[in-house]
Write a structure and sequence with these properties.
Layout (H helix, E strand, L loop, with lengths): L1 H8 L15 H7 L18 E10 L5 E11 L3 E5 L6 H7 L8 E6 L2 E2 L5 H6 L1 E4 L8 E2 H6 L7 H10 L3 H6 L7 E2 L8 H15 L3 E5 L7 H15 L3 E5 L3 H6 L2 E6 L2 E6 L1 H7 L2 H9 L5
Parallel strand pairs: 3-10, 3-11, 6-9, 9-10
Antiparallel strand pairs: 1-2, 1-4, 4-5, 7-8, 11-12
Helix pairs in contact: 6-8, 8-9, 11-12
Bound molecules: adenosine-5'-triphosphate (ATP).
The site of adenosine-5'-triphosphate (ATP) has 14 residues, from helix 3.
């Protein structure tokens, strides 16, 4: 029973629905049999310097090019927000890092090592992914959090729950962490599920994060709580964020503006606003009236 879960656990905390967003590991196993360890694959040591996209191009199947000649360096500890029109390739850029897909041209390196030369397990252990759709299974809250790192001790689970600001939820339930969730148990709200996903990643403790910010509306209070949890989660980690919210974008160390033609602009919020280019236009239309 546990073996397949362990396998999935090395990869993803959160599963997607539909084509948009990240694909599930099992789905990929079924459809992308080419992405396997090379015979001479090595263990990837924890990121210390930088992630580099070198002249990366990509297209899905026989489709049109989605990415062309992308060059990008992300320094360890940096938070990079990807913004740009829908369909520009923000999610695709992030999907290439855990090797859900492989570049059709160029390469991606972590501290100089091509990600195709390392074991998938050691690569994906370093990456935590938070996205809108959270995969939950029928079981206790504890089991669902522990899915972030199977075999984690009680103290670590409790700590992850606290850091993700899920403790208020747990404490309000009569059975606490023993509460059964899912169809036959307690139903969690969207915001609670998000915090559970964040708790899993605190437990996994990867050096690299990929955050796919929710576009769907949560109430302001919940959204603020989640923002705080995510900010705590990304502290000390290298973060790639598919960003939709102004607050997150403003606070990023760097904003990368992705368009169907490629990376159009890079910089901090204030600099990009001052540059009066694409970001400024996106910003003025998307966030009109938002401060
Ligand atoms: P959004 O802001 O809407 O999430 P995005 O900038 O993240 O968009 P991607 O999801 O990376 O864009 O999509 C880039 C292009 O690749 C789009 O034209 C999309 O339709 C296409 N695409 C994405 N995933 C797949 C897939 N699995 N198979 C085929 N085409 C895909």
């Amino acid at each position: 029973f546990f073996r397949p879960i362990e396998k999935i656990n090395a990869v993803l905390e959160v599963y997607p629905k539909g084509v948009a967003g990240f694909r599930s590991y099992l789905e990929l196993l079924a459809t992308e049999p080419d992405i396997v360890d090379r015979p001479e694959a090595v263990e990837l040591p924890p990121l210390t310097h930088e992630i580099r996209y070198e002249n990366v191009s990509f297209h899905y199947g026989g489709g049109r090019p989605v990415l062309q000649n992308i060059d990008l360096t992300i320094h360890a500890g940096e938070t990079v927000a990807f913004v740009g029109p829908s369909g520009a390739g923000k999610t695709t850029i992030c999907s290439l890092l855990p090797r859900f897909y492989e570049p059709t041209g160029g390469r991606i390196t972590i501290d100089g090592t091509d990600v195709r030369d390392v074991t998938l397990a050691s690569l994906r252990r370093q990456i935590g992914i938070v996205q809108q759709d959270v995969f939950l299974f029928a079981g206790t809250l504890r089991d669902n959090v522990a899915y972030g790192r199977l075999g984690a001790g009680e103290a670590d689970i409790v700590d992850a729950v606290k850091r993700a600001r899920l403790d208020h939820v747990v404490n309000a339930l009569p059975n606490g962490l023993d509460t059964v969730i899912g169809e036959r148990g307690v139903k969690l709200s969207g915001g609670q599920k998000q915090r559970l996903a964040i708790a899993r990643i605190f437990l996994k403790d990867p050096p690299i994060l990929i955050l796919d910010e929710a576009t769907s509306a949560l109430d302001t209070e919940t959204e603020r709580e989640i923002q705080l949890s995510l900010a705590a989660l990304s502290e000390g980690r290298t973060t790639l964020m598919i960003a939709h919210r102004l607050a997150t974008i403003r606070d990023a160390d760097r904003i990368v503006v992705v368009t169907p033609e490629g990376i159009a602009e890079e910089g901090r919020h204030a600099d990009l606003v001052a540059a009066r280019g694409i970001y400024r236009r996106l910003h003025d239309t998307q966030f009109a009236g938002v401060s």
